[in-house]
Write a structure and sequence with these properties.
The protein contains 2 helices and 24 strands. It is mainly beta and 277 residues long. It has a 7-stranded mixed β-sheet with strand order 1-3-4-11-6-9-12, with no helix packed on it. Strand 3 and strand 4 form a beta hairpin. The relative contact order is 0.17. Bound molecules: 4-deoxy-L-threo-hex-5-ulosuronic acid (D54) and zinc ion (ZN). The site of zinc ion has 5 residues, from loops.
Length: 277
């Protein structure tokens, strides 16, 4: 249920071939029917994964890997539903999540259950979780409650809106920051011009893609770039030393989540396009 990924050094990553890059950073096999799939990255101890309840309800449980009595004993959680209508039950209280609805769940919630309303159109819960030290209130976040940041232009093929869901402008969290980026029709690039933020790691999750569509996800140090091919409903870990940017062959949407030293979204180190190698 919980797969461990250790942190990798920028010095080692330079020598990785395609399969090793994928082994370290790419996350596939998400959203298996009636299954919880989680990847525990040792980079900032971020957990990313999927909960896909179809016929039955699924519980989020703590394994030995996190050494706690229950999943959120010392963690916080961000959830965004990318499927049909679903319900998250937190210590008995129900939160209904439509497609693109999010939920911040604070530390200390013991019992976490995920359900679909219609098994013909099941909910698909994408989750990020980071270590926490304070119990902040649970908040449901509709895309209309999210903080929109408009970026890019048609000319640069990167016109998009970044919806900040779990972010200081919307709700309190210990370190988790999470949101969703929607591209305008015809725009194919995300996060280009690229940036790094050595203070925080990031995980990108690409979805709403046709089966034959691809996103070439750009990663690596700015002068040592690589790509990882992403298909629908796949995620990729971005170490803090790495750029994270993608270009799609067809339309796509993605969810990003960060954890680390701070929550200052605007402190990224921008890279001039002329400096990438
Ligand atoms: O640090 C921030 C993250 O990389 C994303 O918010 C960027 C993003 O979604 C985009 O530019 O499209
Ligand atoms: Zn970033």
């Amino acid at each position: 249920m919980l797969e461990i990924r250790y942190a990798s050094s920028n010095k080692d990553a330079k020598g990785y071939d395609t399969s090793r890059l994928r082994e370290e950073y790419h996350i596939g096999g998400l959203f298996q029917k009636d299954d919880v799939k989680l990847v525990y990255s040792h980079i900032d101890r971020m957990i990313a994964g999927s909960v896909c309840p179809v016929e039955k309800a699924l519980k989020l449980e703590a394994g030995k890997e996190i050494g706690a009595e229950y999943f959120l004993e010392r963690r916080e959680l961000g959830v965004i539903n990318i499927g049909g209508k679903g319900i998250v039950v937190l210590d008995g209280q129900e939160y209904e999540l439509d497609k693109k609805d999010g939920l911040y769940v604070g530390m200390g919630i013991k019992d976490i259950i995920f359900k679909s309303i219609d098994s013909q159109n099941p909910a698909k819960f994408y989750i990020n979780s980071a270590p926490a030290h304070v119990a902040y209130p649970t908040v449901k976040i509709n895309i209309k409650d999210a903080n929109p940041v408009h970026l890019g232009s048609e000319k640069e093929l990167n016109k998009r809106t970044i919806y900040q869901y779990v972010h200081p402008a919307v709700c309190k969290s210990c370190q988790l920051v999470m949101g969703m980026t929607l591209l305008e029709e015809g725009s194919v690039w995300n996060t280009m011009p690229a940036h790094t933020h050595d203070r925080r790691m990031e995980v990108y999750f690409y979805f709403d893609m046709d089966e034959d569509a691809m996103v070439f996800h750009m990663m690596g140090e700015p002068q040592e770039t690589r790509h990882i091919i992403m298909r629908n409903e796949e995620a990729v870990i971005s170490p803090s030393w790495s750029i994270h940017s993608g270009v799609g062959t067809k339309k796509y949407t993605f969810i990003w989540g960060m954890a680390g030293e701070n929550q200052t979204f605007t402190d990224m180190d921008h890279i001039d396009n002329r400096d990438l190698l």
